[in-house]
């Protein structure tokens, strides 16, 4: 039995003795100290009497911070297993199973693809079953799932293009309501709308969403996405997401907030195919977008382990190559750049999530060597570097502790989920992400 006491209502005055502490490893980077939280835990018997001298083992189970990655491979596995699906070849099934193990060993937030053109390539036949099965796979393993995106001008279904604008808008509203509603409870985090800065002026292809955005306007499109998603899932976390880190995106955020749009978090993309941002650019982006007081999610991060894309390419999609290999030198560089990038992001108190855009080079966007794992399923140094931080430096190793004279101990570590084992019985506790003093009471026996 777990009894939670909010210390703001029922504070405990216990000051745990040195022997009654379960401390996280020393934080190597002092800039990350604000991610560490403390929790006073008091053990009592069923009559409410304290249990001094009780032996407790503390183990971390998960992070409050979202270390994300895309889960597109899992959609392929799920689709193949559905009735009528095409079974995977044995070598493909083995590779995807291996990648899933590597994925789950590091990440706790999965982004799944809801691009309308592939999700509903034939009108009225959405891939709901495959996406639901993939989402359930992650949720069953304690992973938070995000859908990406509800509204976007790219990857649109061809059947939408010949329809009049009023019908396109009607179907777009219906699409947002259908998918945000049908997946509520399973997927409660969404990129509500993607890349709105460029949406009305996009010229790379002919699509119906860009066409209606020219009439409705950027704010009108944002309101459509947020209003319809919120109507069917009031508790959803909805993001405004973009790759444009210029003042244009800042102005768009200002206009959306002035129009009354309730944005839960800002999505900031960081595909670095032409080279790393570096600390100065990263800090500049963080400073400019944190001024809105909104939580920040780095939704799409890529760093290469091979040759960089030539800088003259403005649109990354324009660079098309058949072979883009990972190299030993590139892999070492990717590991260094990844560690620097993640440390800079976690050092900022407004950042709640970082999603890396692809686990492996297998099926990587643009055929680029941007994965953390090679195409054959072997980890690159960047994977090991990230795992070393997430599950090493920022992770509380199993720790034995004894309660003090008042039956209390202090649990200290990175915000997240923990288990306390008392005489073989396990109790779930949480170090909250919010910087508040909190205490819990565990009734043992």
TrEMBL record:
It catalyses: Endohydrolysis of (1->4)-beta-D-xylosidic linkages in xylans. The keyword Glycoprotein does not apply. Residues 1-27 are annotated as: Disordered. SUPFAM superfamilies: (Trans)glycosidases (SSF51445). It is an enzyme of class 3 (hydrolase). Its EC number is 3.2.1.8. Pfam families: Glyco_hydro_10 (PF00331). Belongs to the glycosyl hydrolase 10 (cellulase F) family. This is Beta-xylanase.
